[in-house]
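A note from the maintainers: we've had questions about how concatenated examples are separated. There is no special marker in the raw files; a new sequence line simply starts the next protein. For clarity in this README we add a label.
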Amino acid sequence: MAALVLEPGAHMVDSTFGAGGYSARALAAGAQVTAFDRDPRAIAAGQALAAAYPGRLRLVEAPFADMAAHVAPASADAVAFDLGLSSMQLDQPAYGMSFRHDAPLDMRMGADGPTAADFLNTADETEIADVLFHLGEEPAARRIARAIVRARPLARTGELADLVRRVLGHPRGARRDPATLSFQAIRMHVNDELGQLARGLEAAETVLKPGGRLAVVSFHSLEDRMVKQFLAARSGAMPGASRHRPEARPARPPAFARPARAVRPSPAEIAANPRARSARLRSARRLGPAELAA
C-alpha cells in the first residue's frame, strides 16, 4: 500500500480482489476502487464491503487481463496485483486447489472453462509433461505424466497427490510435499496464469495516469521474472552493449520510471504469515508527458 502512494479521492484498481484486503485499505484511505476477480464467490462476498462504502467500490467479475475493457485509459492513480491463490481459495476444499483436502479435481479460479480433471484426463502424455516441467519446474515431469496417463481417469485431489507421491517417494520429515510442484503447475495451466499476467500488465500500463503507481506481489519465480522483465523493458532498462552484443533498443518509448528495488517479507512477517515467505513486491511509477518528451 505504501508503494501505491494513495491520496484521498484517488482511483485504485485492485486487480486481484480476493478477500478484499487491498480494497479495504484503499477505501479506508479515502480512495475510489475498481476491483476485479474472476471468482464469482469472491465478488459475492465483496458486496458487504461495497455496502460499507456506498458508491466507492465497483466490483467487476472478470479476469484482470480484461481490465482495459472496464477501466478508461489513463484514469487510474494506482494498480495493484497480488498474484496466485488467495488464502480463501487454498483453504476451501471446493476449489480443489490443495492436496491438504480430498476434493474434486477442479483448480479453476473462476467458474468456467475446463477443470484440472478435464485436462489430465484428455491431454496426451507429452503435453502434461511439458506443463509440469515448464510451469512447475518439476524434474520428474515425464515420469509423473506417464503415471497420470496410466492411472486415468482421475477425479480427486487425493488421487493425484497420492500418485505423485508414489512416483517420487515421500521421505518422512521432508519440508515440502512431493506433490507441491505438480499441483502448482496444473493450477497455473488451468487458469492460464502467465498469459493472464502478461495481458494484465499491458492493461495496467494503459489504464494508469501519468504519475500513477503499479505494484505487483508475486509468489512464484516465473511470475516474478515476468514482472521484472516487463518493468525493465517498459522503463528502458535494457541490457548494455558489448562487442559481442549490439546495443539493445526498446521497441517503443519507455512508459515507467526505473522500478524500485524488489521488497521481500521481513522475518517477522514470515513468522506471522508463513505463506508470505516467497513473496516479492515490485513497483514503478508511470511516466508523465514531460518525462516522456525528455
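[label: protein 2]
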Amino acid sequence: MIGLLDRPTIGTVSIDGTETSTLNDDKISSFRNKKLGFIFQFSNLLTDLSVLENVLLPMQIAGNDTAKKEAMDLLRAVGLEDQMYKRANKISGGQAQRVAIARGLINKPSIVLADEPTGNLDSITSETIVQLMKSMAKKLNQTFIIVTHDRKHFGDVDRIITIKDGRAFEGEQPSEMEITV
C-alpha cells in the first residue's frame, strides 16, 4: 500500500500530505517516482544497461538528465566506483544489490521501501549498506521502511514493528500494545 502498487479497499494512504487514493494512474506513477524509492530483495536490474545507466533510470523517467554526478557519487558510496560502466549482467549478485540500493536512493525519495536489502550481501558489505542507509536517512530526512528477517544487522533504529500471524506489534516481541495497520 505504501508503495502505491495496490489501492486500499478501505481507508486511505497519505504520503507527505498527499492523499494518494484520489490520484489517477499517471499521477501515481509520477508521485511514486518522485517520493518513493524501492530496494527489492532481488536487484531487478536491466541487464542490457550499464551499472551507471541502471542507477540513472529513475531520474531519466522523471525527466532529469543532469544527475550523472549524483549517480556516480552514490555508486562510490556503495563501493562500486570501479564497476560503473560494466553491464549489469557482468557483476556479482552482491554488487547488483548495491546498484539497486543506489538506484533506490537516486531521486532522494521521502520514503525508501526496502525488502531484505542486505539479504544477498556478506556481513561486511551489509554493515556498509546499513550505515549508508542510516546516514542517507539523516542527511536527506528520509524514512526507510525495511522488511527483514535478520534484524541484528540494523542495530539501533527509531522504530520496530513486528508482524506475527498477520498482526502488527510495536517492538521486536508482541506485547500488549497492538498497532492497527
